[in-house]
Amino acid sequence: MTKPHALVVGGTKGLGRVVADRFLARGCTVTTLSRNATGSALPDGMHHIAADLETLDNAGAIVAEALETGGPLSYLLLCQRYRGTGDPWTGEIQVGLTASRLLIDEFAPFFHADGDRAIGVVSSVYADFVGSSQPVGYHVVKAGLNQMVRYYAWELGRKGIRANAIMPLTYMKPESRAHYLAQTDLLALYDRFVPLRRLGNAEDSADLLDFLCSERASFINGQCIHVDGGVSVVWQEELARNMARL
Questions:
Q1: Residue 215 sits in a domain of what CATH number?
Q2: Which of 41, 80, 210, 211 is a Cys-bridge partner for 10, taking CB atoms 3.0 to 4.6 Å apart?
């Protein structure tokens, strides 16, 4: 098989860029897709496609450019999220769900014919839980992404392409690390309610995506996995008692 090709949607900053760097370090050809160029030179083996997911209604041109750049895919990583200023419900659904479906459907026939092949999706703990820090559209989209992963795990699994999602708790991105580390009260809060006693970081999530999109995960398919230091296994009353010091 030729050199593996990984396409990372939202791969120019934040978690997406950490994921892109992981696959580049593995020896993959990496194509990143985002609205704007990176603003700096890309390392050897990494390419960029500019596309606005808010207006995407056909991914054919993206597929053609990606195939010309790196050849058939081995891995498709969906790390994007809505950052627009329009209606949040419409924007979240378009960027999170509609664009994801278009990209998966358009790229599905153009994966390598053999070798390891997988789709990795960044969902959220808000797929399973409710919180005031995100709008209703964000909750609905993340839950929808999890179900989309299960659907494609069946449909594309018959062709040897796995699909899995990760559900991170709040985490530090490279761009926000200094800000979080300066918030001593916030760090103390995470020390109290996270069983592993720390705030997560982008590398935690990137490591899991790196694993799920590798031969080491060749029989893992259709799973949506929490990356939360164990918070999701704690009964709410126990958490409330701990926070109230009862």
A1: 3.40.50.720
A2: 80
